[in-house]
Amino acid sequence: MNPGLQDFEPVLVLGFNRPHLLGALLRRLQEGPPFRLYVALDGPRSEYPGDVGLVQECRDEVESLDWPSEVRTLFQEKNRGCGASVTAALTWFFEQEERGIVLEDDILPDLSFLPFCSELLRRYEHDDRVFAISGSNVVPATSQSSPDLPYRFSQVTHVWGWATWRRSWLQHKEDMSDWREQLDAQTLWERTGRSLTGALFWGGFFDLVRRGVLDTWDVQFVLAGMRAGQLTATANVNLTENTGGGHDATHENSTAYAAQPVSSVDLPLVDVPVVCDDRADEWTRIHHFQATVKARQAIAIRDPYFQGFVEDIRRISSQRESTRR
User: Fold this and answer.
1) Would you say the pTM of this structure is higher than 0.70?
2) Cα(100)–Cα(38) distance, rounded to whole angstroms?
3) How many CA atoms lie within 13 A of 130 on its CB side?
4) Helices then strands (H, E): number in the chain?
5) Phi, then psi, of 235 in degrees rounded to 5
6) DSSP letter string over 113-156?
7) Distance between CA 106 and CA 21 in Å, rounded?
8) Closest CA to 159 of 231, 211, 110, 232
9) Is 81 left (phi over 0), alpha (psi -120 to 50) or beta?
């Protein structure tokens, strides 16, 4: 029987000005069964004349794609920046789909990634304990609680190949001006493993977005998941490769952010208890995010709004230490 368009859930591909990466991703997706495909591309930046040609090359890659059904596109005429353009693209996608898979142009998935996401999207569609699905794994098996299982649950959604539902995306708020009101210090403390450095790390990230230092969308998505107290089903093996760490990367990719080697996952997937793997999250916090170093940097932020958060977290941490004595 020939595979149909319903075998995999719909996929949104996000791109901008890297036709070589976008082309490689589209060719990889052609290797598997077909599915409903959406492509969103940001527009050229006025201050970079070379963008015009590169963005057009990306559009040409999409328009020349040999796909068994209509490819739905959202091409921005002007550059909106990482945060606004991706937010608009995801909103557009989830206005049309109840659930779906998201790949940025610099993510090359293993062929088991799409069925992995599709199976879990269907399994947890009506389970409000689950916020999203991620095919990106940065944690070695020795630091996972149950490495024999195909996936685990994490508090943080890693977006190097991920999937979610409309119900989760509707919780996303682009505006971070009131992040402390959205997520109080006690809740953030709980969501970050009751870790002083973990809380300061994420609080610092949230405040970078609030102050306009960081133009992004995924930090807001992490905040939404923490606010909801929902978890992300995360592959215990790494199903995606990030190929975008070169000079044209939007955000710098350092070796600290490296994922595990890419491999496949066996399907169908056994069921996994919806409980956060605190051990894997702790490893991620210390080694992948380097929270200890970045927490020190965050403390140096001389902003009254953020310093109020620092005082709250230090008080919560001190109270916890005093109850241990």
Assistant:
1) yes
2) 10
3) 24
4) 12, 10
5) -60, 140
6) HHHHHHHHHHHTTT-TTEEEEE----S-GGGSS-TTSSEEEESS
7) 6
8) 232
9) left
Q: Which CATH superfamily is domain 11-174+217-289 in?
A: Spore Coat Polysaccharide Biosynthesis Protein SpsA; Chain A (3.90.550.10)
Tell me the CA distances in angstroms from 254 to 51, 64, 120, 244, 270, one per residue in order: 25, 34, 30, 11, 34
Residue with tokens 């809380």: 199
Please give the structure tokens belonging to residue 195.
Answer: 């870790």
Q: Assign 30 to helix, strand or coil.
A: coil
Q: Which amino acid is at 204?
A: G
Alpha-carbon distance of 58 to 19, in angstroms, equals 5
Task: Spell out the domain ranges in the chain.
Answer: 11-174+217-289
Single-letter amino acid code for the residue at 82: C
What span, in angstroms and rounded, lies between the C-alpha atoms of 11 and 26?
A: 11
Per the structure block, which two tokens stand in for 123? 């399994």
DSSP string, 152-174: EEESS---SSEEEEHHHHTT--S
Number of residues in the chain: 325
Average pLDDT value for residue range 29-42: 95
Nearest to 87 by CA among 24, 10, 175, 157: 175
Tell me the per-residue pLDDT of 111-130, one tens digit each, with 9 for 90 and over. 999 999 999 999 999 999 99
Starting at the edge strand found earlier in the chain, the sheet holding 71-75 runs: 71-75, 37-41, 11-15, 99-104, 162-165, 130-134, 231-235, 151-154
Cβ–Cβ under 8 Å, residues 221 and 206: no
Helix axes 19-29, 50-63, angle to 10 degrees: 10
Give the H or E element holding residue 196: helix 196-210
Q: Model confidence at 320, in pLDDT bands (50, 70, 90)?
A: confident
Q: Among 62-66, 90-94, 277-281, 316-320, whose mean pLDDT is lowest? A: 316-320
